[in-house]
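Possible regression after last week's pipeline update?

I re-ran a chain I had predicted before the update to compare outputs. Posting the input and the new output here so someone can diff against the archived version. Not blocking, just want to make sure nothing changed silently.
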Amino acid sequence: MNSTTSEQFHLYNINEDVLTVVNIATELNWVPIREQSISRILYLASVLYSFRFRNQDNPFVKDYHFSVDASGPFYSLIKNSLIFLEANDYIKRESKNEISLGINNTINLNKLPNHETKAKWLRSIFYIIGVYGESKIYEFIIRDPQYQQNLNSNTLKDINIGPNNETVATLSTFKEAFEEELKEEAEQIDDKEYLELYFEYLFSKIIKGDVQL
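New output (post-update):
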């Protein structure tokens, strides 16, 4: 697969993810959704998937190569995806930075590979953001030393969003103790409740000074 074909393949998958995000935002009445929020949600989904499912393949890893600037994580193909989706009326701009569904929104996403897995996980990300707020969750995630190093050095080096990501390592430090407190319940609760309880546990550690933001 040459570089052009490879980029087109990744763009196709990213189109699906972006449209899924806008659809979920619409269902939750979170529209218009900011362009920056779309990138943040996809970044959070990528990083936290490796934390929640450490022994599973992360369906976001192959398609995303995030860099960072002062506004947050970005990837050029997300920008390209927004341009494509707007040009084909899948989305529309309410203002320069605000997105909502367009008139051509009848695409059957359920037929696309990994859609169900990714959509379910993205709903979990929306849920945890709804509970704690985008800024609070995002503020913790960007404590990733690699993220901060790239930001401070103004480098365009890719951020590691795989299982060896520093944020995943930090989150996992408390995972064993957290699951020990939950006991059998840890295996029974769904992803939304798991993330909600975990971040409640984690933020209590922050308040006590056990974790520094």
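Follow-up from reviewer: compared with the archived run. The two ends are 42 Å apart (CA to CA). Marking as no regression found.
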